[in-house]
Amino acid sequence: RYGQADTEDQVGVANGLAYTTVGGDTLQIEVSLSPGKGKLILTGKLGDVMKESAQTAFSYVRSKATELGIEANFHEHHDIHIHVPEGAVPKDGPSAGITMAVALISALTGRPVRRDVGMTGEITLRGRVLPIGGVKEKSLGAHRAGLKTIILPKDNEKDIDDVPKSIREGLTFLTVSTMDEVLDIAIGGSNK
Amino acid sequence: RYGQADTEDQVGVANGLAYTTVGGDTLQIEVSLSPGKGKLILTGKLGDVMKESAQTAFSYVRSKATELGIEANFHEHHDIHIHVPEGAVPKDGPSAGITMAVALISALTGRPVRRDVGMTGEITLRGRVLPIGGVKEKSLGAHRAGLKTIILPKDNEKDIDDVPKSIREGLTFLTVSTMDEVLDIAIGGSNK
Amino acid sequence: RYGQADTEDQVGVANGLAYTTVGGDTLQIEVSLSPGKGKLILTGKLGDVMKESAQTAFSYVRSKATELGIEANFHEHHDIHIHVPEGAVPKDGPSAGITMAVALISALTGRPVRRDVGMTGEITLRGRVLPIGGVKEKSLGAHRAGLKTIILPKDNEKDIDDVPKSIREGLTFLTVSTMDEVLDIAIGGSNK
Amino acid sequence: RYGQADTEDQVGVANGLAYTTVGGDTLQIEVSLSPGKGKLILTGKLGDVMKESAQTAFSYVRSKATELGIEANFHEHHDIHIHVPEGAVPKDGPSAGITMAVALISALTGRPVRRDVGMTGEITLRGRVLPIGGVKEKSLGAHRAGLKTIILPKDNEKDIDDVPKSIREGLTFLTVSTMDEVLDIAIGGSNK
Amino acid sequence: RYGQADTEDQVGVANGLAYTTVGGDTLQIEVSLSPGKGKLILTGKLGDVMKESAQTAFSYVRSKATELGIEANFHEHHDIHIHVPEGAVPKDGPSAGITMAVALISALTGRPVRRDVGMTGEITLRGRVLPIGGVKEKSLGAHRAGLKTIILPKDNEKDIDDVPKSIREGLTFLTVSTMDEVLDIAIGGSNK
Amino acid sequence: RYGQADTEDQVGVANGLAYTTVGGDTLQIEVSLSPGKGKLILTGKLGDVMKESAQTAFSYVRSKATELGIEANFHEHHDIHIHVPEGAVPKDGPSAGITMAVALISALTGRPVRRDVGMTGEITLRGRVLPIGGVKEKSLGAHRAGLKTIILPKDNEKDIDDVPKSIREGLTFLTVSTMDEVLDIAIGGSNK
Ligand SMILES: [Ca+2]
Ligand SMILES: [Ca+2]
Ligand SMILES: [Ca+2]
Ligand SMILES: [Ca+2]
Ligand SMILES: [Ca+2]
Ligand SMILES: [Ca+2]
Ligand SMILES: [Ca+2]
Ligand SMILES: [Ca+2]
Ligand SMILES: [Ca+2]
Ligand SMILES: [Ca+2]
Ligand SMILES: [Ca+2]
Ligand SMILES: [Ca+2]
Q1: Residues D48, C45 contacting (CB under 8 angstroms)
Q2: B49 and A88 in contact by Cβ < 8 A?
Q3: Do E75 and D12 touch (CB under 8 A)?
Q4: Contact at 8 Å (CB) between B29 and B44?
Q5: Which domains are present in chain E?
Q6: Fewest Cβ atoms nearer than 10 Å: which of A151, C25, E100, F6?
């Protein structure tokens, strides 16, 4: 059923957490590579802030390519497509930044993303992780989708105690300040 | 008569199902290739969501090219045009995603699409098939156009019993979760 | 006088039929080639649907180039301009599709178009001809301009008896379902 | 004084006739060539119809280059700029079409334009000249600016008798149906 | 203090005169060259008319390059940026045309612009100088900024006697009809 | 905690000062380089004036590359991304101009920026520094974020005495008229 955790770790897909007027939800970020010339294609009815966030995640990955074990010139041979189903639902905001970076790095390194991990956080060009909103609702959505581990920005630590106890006990919360920490958790055997 | 099932299986054409304020209808997705440099041209008064859906279908096909038996560098030598007649009628939504993917794959492999099959479903970049609306109306439209088999997303299975019995008996409903299953049904001799 | 049938068959020009609030009219579609790189230029205050219709006609011609006796790589050496005088009058709709295809094919093959033929019909990417509106008014306009033969979509056959008898007698109506049939009528010695 | 006939025949400049709410006026069309790659630059606060008219004039010239004595590949080595002073005054409509074609051909052949000639007429892609409005007002403006000869579309012949007799006697009216005729009058020694 | 005459003649900078609702002002036009491919970059919250004026000045310079002592192919090796501080203040109109041409020519030839000269006038593609508005207010602004010489279009000669006598006596007014005359005044040792 | 001074001098990051309706704030300008072709990418919900300011800073750096110790052709091998977190907060105005120039130069030379310095000022294409608003509020924001030194435009000197004494005593104010002076302060061992 779409919206439930996958049954296997996959490459080029990561679980984000969304916060809508009707409550929290998960959203999967999909990344695919095709032979091409470095074009970045963004689809899924994304608003301007979310598109800029994708571009920031992409530049982060490009500028750290060597460090991340990615061929430095991958952009000369590939187009990159980031898609966020469901295509008719408008999405916006910077909080999927780290999720898009994880899905990109997975696609470019071939290393799978842990399927039981959900994550939310704004990314900066240097790979810092900035706070986001809706921790309580997003946690409920993650729990409902069967996720086990939630990555949150360090500056959102104070919001964890707002999550109902019953939910909190079924989830592991990990807080981070940098993309390095995100990758250590989300991508097995990361070498960055 | 336009809008009726073709009398022969064809290459680069697939039957989609639409759902308008005046009921269900079929719509044919046409794909043509020309010598070119990989441009994707989209016409037929398509809304933004439908255009993004086409782009997602296109990236799915490009990223799976080898697997699908398509020359990996076809985009360097061809422009791809996806057109949805009738050109003055506005169309939108993600539900033609799998139909556009089928028409693309048919055009690129030269394998014909079964002319008696209609299909509806959102496609994701990985080739997952997500649920859509209007199953009842689309089924009526498919029946009226003389189609025999309907491909639906697995998550729409529960909507089949809303189709009037008389119509349901004249149609075979097949539900799918992935593009692989769609291709097994719609394109004869698919090797993916 | 502009708007009257030409006195000689010409290359790169075809007679379309328009239907405005003040009645039917003819409109000439002009196509010119220049040394270039395959750009398609569209002028004449054309609306979006008409522009997409031109693009569809262009892709049809490109994908059938060899079959039509056109050098497959013409787009690498030429820019194509489609212009519809009179430049200050807004025009829209898909019904000039087959006329634009005929003018394009004439320009690219050097074969003249029959100057006494007017035509109207939506074109699809595969070269099917779909029905249009305003048959009665367009016939009056064609008659007034001195045309002798009218090409109509097969699905508009039923509208011919709405044309006043006196006009109908001065015109030959030919109905078609495919561009092949259009070319057999409009372009002398077509080998399509 | 700007707006008065030049005192010498010039290359790349032609006199158009405009018709504004405050009466007729002349407007000079200037064309310059620079080393470049075939870009067409249009300035002077031109409306969409006037821009399309410029493009049509440009394609006419490109498609007839050899016939006009212009190097066929000039667009590979030059950018073309068409400017209509005065830059803050909005201008629109198709009636400067033949004037822009004349200025272009003059710039590309190096042959000067007769400085005492004013002209007005819509151009088509094939070089036909279509009728325009405001003959009376434009004639007054031309007379005021010191022009001696006016080129008008053949279909505007009937409007000449609306020009006050005193003005008409100071001007020679020449009517034309094709660009060939325009060039014979406006450009000395044209070989078109 | 910004807005005061510079203390040395500089390359790539020229003093324009502006006319705002709160009176006259000077504005400096800055031009810089960078290794590049001929892109023209325009910044400083410029309106459409002012942008077109910049483009016209640029084409004038390109088409006269050899005559002006500028390498004919400079555009193949350089990007050109024209900036008008102060970046948050909207600016428009054609009257900075000659100032932009002077700053461009200075940057491209390396010859400094006289720092005590202010100038205002619309430029045409052929280098003619057309009249502008606000002579009185602009003169006051120039005087306040410490400028000594004002270049005005010939057609504005009649407006000089509207400038208060006390101001007029501190300024030298020079009127011009062509860019050649502007360059003789503004750029030392110009060979135009 | 985001918004506090970094604990180490960094490359490609500089502290700007912002002035919002709810008071002063700091904002970090991040710059990253990736293998590319000279594209300038700007993100962080920047308004048009701020984007033009970034472009002006970029052209300043490109035109002074040699002087600044930067490889003259860096733009042929790199794309440059300037990002201003927090991505959902709209930002505009020219006052981050010098900060963007500093971050760019740091990224391109590899020389770190002093982490205890905050700066605000409009940049011109020649590297002049123009006055800005909100000195008082920006100083409060800088103090709150733990910065020690503030770079201000010379023309803002008069505004320093509006900063409350207690704050003023914890900060060093340095005023400048040119980018050379900014670099001497902000980038250690600058050879500008
Ligand atoms: Ca959902
Ligand atoms: Ca709390
Ligand atoms: Ca239909
Ligand atoms: Ca049900
Ligand atoms: Ca007409
Ligand atoms: Ca009938
Ligand atoms: Ca005038
Ligand atoms: Ca009359
Ligand atoms: Ca000022
Ligand atoms: Ca006066
Ligand atoms: Ca903040
Ligand atoms: Ca003060």
Answers
A1: yes
A2: yes
A3: no
A4: no
A5: 13-186 (3.30.230.10)
A6: F6
